[in-house]
Amino acid sequence: MADRLPRHSTDQGKLRCRNSRNLANTVAAEAAPLLRGDDDDDAARSESAQPTFAERIHAIAQEPLTPLTQVLLVVALVLLLLSSVFIGLFAGEYSKLKQHESDGNKPPATITVTATSTAVFTTTAAPPAGPTSPPVEQPCTSSECIILSASILSSLDVSQDPCENFFDFANGGWIADHPLPADKGSFGQFEALSQENKRVIQHFLETPSATSSFTTSDDEQLLKKLRDFYSSCLNENKLDELGTEPLIHFVKTLQKLFRGEGLEVSATQSEDKLSGLTPAMAFLHSRGIDALFSFVIDGDIGVDPNFMTLWFDQASLGLPSKEYYEEESILEVYQSVVERLLFTLSEEEDKLQQATPTLVENANVWPSWPWPPYPDDDDDEDEKPNRTEIAHKLAKEVIKFETRLANASLDADVYQDPFATYNRLPLSNLTASLPEISFPEYFSSFAPRRFPENVIITYPAYTVSLSEILHSTSSDVVEAYLVVRAALALSPNLGMTTEAWQAQRTLLETLTGIKKGAVGDRAEYCVGKVEESLGFAAGRYFVNETFGGDSREKGTKVITDIVDAFKASLPSVPWLDKTSADAAAEKADAIRVKVGYPISPNTRDPRSILNYYSTVKVDEDTYFDNILSAAASDEFKTWLKLGQQRNLEVWEMWPSMVNAYFNPPSNEIVFPAGILQPPFFSHDWPSYLSYGAFGHVAAHELTHAFDSAGRLFNQHGKLENWWTNSSNAGFQIKQECIETQYSSYTVPDGKGGEIHVNGNLTSGENIGDTGLIQAYRAWKAQFSSSLMAGDEYLLPGLNYTREQLFFISFARIWGNNIKTAAQVQRVRTDPHSPNIFRVDGTVFNIPEFAAAFNCPKTAKLNPPPEKQCLFWS
């Protein structure tokens, strides 16, 4: 500002020339004054005469310079020049500073800086606008900061109004630059990071030198198991050479068990066409293949959340949800796929038997034609049934059977209610309601350490319905159903040239919108199978490569800061009374926070991981068997938990996974190293980005402890109503608000219509997303100390405030492209809302967002308070 510049001036009073009477007695060279007052032409003047200023200047100019005067004059000129340069530089920098502060709309004003009476420097800057401001912060200009800033800028679509379409504003650029791959139904930031993580794993799987620092024999064994598994998946030539044979072997074993072949059975059992159902089901379930029903080993949340007990549940279906069994177009495709699988298995087994007669103990091929015998009154009795026709008829019956199972299943939204799905009963109740299964025989197949006395049934009506369905269905159809379940689950592990692989692929393409025939990178696929089967082993080397420095400490700090912010907000939540608020704070304090990698198995100890995977048998030439071995190992470890106390150090996700979770019975939130990577987190990012992106992930999982389901578990993980009646009533009002809000959102159905989001199904996840406000408050609470530490530095080229960048960082992690068919499937089956609503629906309920972007009152994302679902304020 001009009035603050330093000014230099000379005395404006008269210059007085005093003549010393002793001047004539001094040496002439030293007697000459700096400003001389007498001259030879003025000798006649009297001593008292006062010459004018002009006369004195003229006299000085005419006076010869002494050596001393010459030196002093040179010094004065040098000093004048230096001061002029300095003042000029100062004026220039000052001008730049004021122009940076100016909003660009005010006319420039002239600032004049004078350096002595003979030098003038002029520049322009914005005029004074008020009190003095602090010095403007300079952005970070390192290469890392420039790259980070560029990634943010490139993700934006500034043609969109953030107050109207924040998802599009924050992600439009990224979506345009990342068209959906033909082999994927959905691709977003989560999938992009997952790809990056897979590349890290792929590198050490393919490059022995990448793990040369791991020299122990345990690491060598571990790496060999990982690399052999990966190699077996990559060897497509071997898979094509084997063809359908591995699946036929599996199906043949399944059929022998179902038919009771080779087993000692009583006369009564031999008359029961479903007598072999129990061993067949045990065989399927022991290999991780879901059919008819499923068992889970987890805590008894009503008695002791850490006592691992048996949970009986309904099975998954061949189609993603029961709604699909009402769509004729989908059923036509599904029936065609089932028919192809049944036909090709019978045909391929026939060919295999002819080529290798000793391969199958039973000389009769499967199925023994006709199978089943479907006589038609109009058919010639002597005519041999056509194999294609038989498969067609049988496929129709399998679809009808599955449709009945779907109708008997619990609806997905009701499934989210922990009280509705907790039904603790004596085991005798289960055996009585479902006599078609001999549960003692079934359990003995898994060799549990303790035989269960009680069982928790998620939906008791399902067991009764299942019994009725089995009792009224032909054993041939039940057998075919089991075969189809096995084929759909295992055919992806065959060579892509097989008919079975291609059949299941057709169904996948239909349900997800994947382009027909488009297959992704095989290496990426195989790394994914390594993660699924040996994830904790791969995680050891992934963590070593990607999760060093203080990543764990800084990630943990973000989480604990959010927990503190949540607790601080509780007293001001209007619908939560003090008793419930205090209890909620106790639960928040009791939550276990796990970040990065587990200690059981211990990621830092290869021996611990080897022991964990000791039952997984891997051979580089037998990919199909490797998959089965890994699945059987998982089931074996699961059943070992029955009757034991929960191991609180075990994780449900492997370290490279791009995800996180909250587990209500163990009251823990877990964040694998896989998600603690850009664009979610980096240990050297400015805090406003980390708290916006990873902070939302952390706050989401924390808020799950207090969502529509999580709030029903106390600080010890026990299912009980620990809130007061008034707080329960207040929460219910907020929950209904959220359900109504999200139920109003729609997505295209691909047929010219729209499908509404299920607000009941998604309410828990939507409430979890409201935790973003806690991440914002946590960031604000630590801002001053973070700024002092240099962790709130600005990025170059970003014309946004830190508050705006917080919300942009949050929205960016949900950027994705998705096919219409995949979106429909998600709406029907996923308790998470579509990503666009996870962004716009979340900030709709956060007034701080509208304030950060100066949204007008008429903006869509700045609704009046009465229309917002304000959970935590």
TrEMBL record:
One term of GO molecular function: metal ion binding
Region feature Disordered, mapped onto this chain: 31-50
Cofactor(s) demanded: Zn(2+)
GO cellular component terms given for this protein: plasma membrane
Pfam families reported for this sequence: Peptidase_M13, Peptidase_M13_N
SUPFAM superfamilies associated with the record: Metalloproteases ('zincins'), catalytic domain (SSF55486)
Domain Peptidase M13 C-terminal, first and last residues per copy: 659-869
One GO BP: protein processing
Keyword entries, A-Z: Hydrolase, Membrane, Metal-binding, Metalloprotease, Protease, Transmembrane, Transmembrane helix, Zinc
Transmembrane domains' residue ranges: 71-92
CDD domains in the cross-refs: M13
Domain spans labelled Peptidase M13 N-terminal: 162-598
PROSITE patterns in the record: NEPRILYSIN
Classification via InterPro entries: MetalloPept_cat_dom_sf, Peptidase_M13, Peptidase_M13_C, Peptidase_M13_dom_2, Peptidase_M13_N
Family statement: Belongs to the peptidase M13 family.
Record-linked PANTHER family: FI17812P1-RELATED (PTHR11733:SF167), ZINC METALLOPROTEASE FAMILY M13 NEPRILYSIN-RELATED (PTHR11733)
Official protein name in the record: Endothelin-converting enzyme 1
Organism, scientific name: Mycena maculata
